[in-house]
User: Fold these one by one.
Assistant:
Number 1:
Amino acid sequence: MGGAFIGVADDATAASWNPGGLIQLELPEISFVATGFHRIDDNSFGNNPEASGSQTVSKTSINYLSAAYPFQLFERNMIVSINYQNLYDFTRKWSFPIHDKGIDWYADQNVDYQSDGSLSALGIAYCVQISPRVSVGMTLNLWNDWFQNNEWETRQYQWATGEDGGDAFTFEARSIDKYSFSGLNANFGMLWKINSRLHLGAVIKTPFDADLKIRHTSFVSRQYTDLGYGSSNEIDESENGKLRMPLSVGIGISYRFSKEFTASMDLYRTEWDDFILETGNGKETSPVTGLSAAESNIDPTYQARIGAEYLFIKPKYVVPVRGGIFYDPAPAQGSPDHIFGFSIGSGFVYERFVFDIAYQHRFGSDAGTSILKAWGFSQDIEEHTMHCSLIVYF
């Protein structure tokens, strides 16, 4: 439904979208979601056009696992659930040539860049129905590596040949940066069933300071082959830092036109200007731009999502058809990068089993201009994602 789910929140993933909607789960259930994506980055290097071209990467992973149990206590409906969700993925692979030239020197180099890893959270959720029409919930997110390593790693390899003042040289550089992440935050949600057709939802995802362990290793060598001399340097260092994760707030509405047809809309704001990396020596930089916090000019982003669902209801089964569109900007220096997308999906409900499949296409032009400024960098993004989920009721 284009991600327009805050005002719907009627399955176990409500623990992330809007914990206040969990009360709509009337039976104990378990759920599983798998994801696969294919990303195409059409990179443009304005100052080094030889490096321009498309780079692709693909990956499959477990996106979500959950178990939910509804019950009554003190004459109130309640539910608890435990949830695993993969929230951020850092998979990237780039390889390109760079030809640099000065007054009396030149260098022909190749650059390989790779980023791997992800961040996931274990969520413990609770929701209570405080009145026939209003429910509130909370999810405590534990960003630790009990289930999967909460870390990512970037590797960069450069090698070059060239001449400096007529003297031939070779150059080689390797660097590896490894980050380990842990922290704690909460999602607070509310669902208000204004009437039988109109629902209003809201969610707050609290900011938090995550502990970050950073290890940097690098090797740099420059050798003058004809002169028989050169230099090399190795670094292996570790430090502890903090990554300040930003506040996010969202509001959503859904309207049921009939038993079969529902439409929804979400608006969402994330305070990316508060997203700051603080190293062990107290230096603060923006992970978005790589600049110091004082030099960075990052605005909050606003997401807008609209979706709809139609149910083909038969005596023994139900077939849903869903679709949506969204605007999902990425933070950048000066103003956000404009990212758009759409999604479609369907499924099958039979007795105690629910199977769903969804496709999402996400795209944007001239993104990433706030990084690699020396190379005049920008990129067009095209991302294809498939989600498959299974829910079993007990």
Note: The chain has one domain: 14-336+359-393.
Number 2:
Amino acid sequence: MLGGVVDDVRVNDRLTIPAAELAWRFSRSSGPGGQGVNTTDSRVELSWDLAGSALLPPMLKERAAERLGARLVQGVLTVTASEHRSQLRNREAAAARLAGLVASAIAAPPRVRRATRPSKGSVERRIAEKKRRGETKRNRRSYPD
């Protein structure tokens, strides 16, 4: 961000989407803004052509396309922001939203969980506690004389 205007979008430490690959559209926003909402183009749409970008290596591009499949329209990822009254804050919000989406889309898959069995001692303790609890409840019962 330079002088209050969003330039490049920083996704993570190693990846920054250059401003040349971003497309901005502005329109009138519904919501807060009073009388100004009728005259100010504060709603922001930020688009990035994932499929046409040479920024990502093929493997990451494939992973991102797979994870963002429902959000992509002909390979283009679009985010909107209209929650703020000013266009500048909406531009910042849209850039942050795009960065978050791309970061989560290209993140490495989580490690596979290896199934483990509970230890013999923990099983015995659990069953002993269940028996104690049942005995406590059984002692609360009242039997007719």
Note: The first strand starts at residue 9 and ends at 10.
Number 3:
Amino acid sequence: MNTRRWIAAGLGLAAVGAAAVYAQVRNAEEPEFTVIRTQGGFELRDYPALVVAEVTASGDRQRASGASFRRLAAYIFAQDRPQGGESIAMTAPVLQQQTAAGQWQMRFVMPAKYTLETLPPAPSDITLARVPARRMAAIRFSGHGNADDLDAREAQLRGWLAAQGLAPAGAAEFAFYNAPMVPGPLRRNEVLIPVAAP
């Protein structure tokens, strides 16, 4: 009897977890883009200009990621504003790229309703910026996006760009769409590389 109760409890927790995962994925606003080309798991996309909040942290990618995420979350959820104020909805994906040895920049894309002028002021260590419209090559994959996965996918994407006769126009960016508690097989990650205008 005890075993059946444990199984039922486990199934109940799994159902609650699945519902939370579904809600988290379904409700997050994502930037719109236009797909220019698709081939296998690769896409070439045109993104409009985006407004972002960004912060840079030092150290290995995982440590910098945790520190940057907490810092940006404190901003959007109004935890570090003296006057409080409205929270800003979490969007997806969270973007990360290496800007120098041991330096990692993380960006939260702001909801489309905001401009630089209408966003709440940010603390001095967080930059509010407008990323211009750009063309990006993308490859999508599941899992937890560890360093080996990111390196392998970036190499695949660079190989595809070369085969297509497309020139990279900047460093690779890593896009993470899910909360940390989402199981690896259900996660959506992407490597993005800006592409020179034709």
Note: Helices lie at 2-27, 61-76, 147-164.
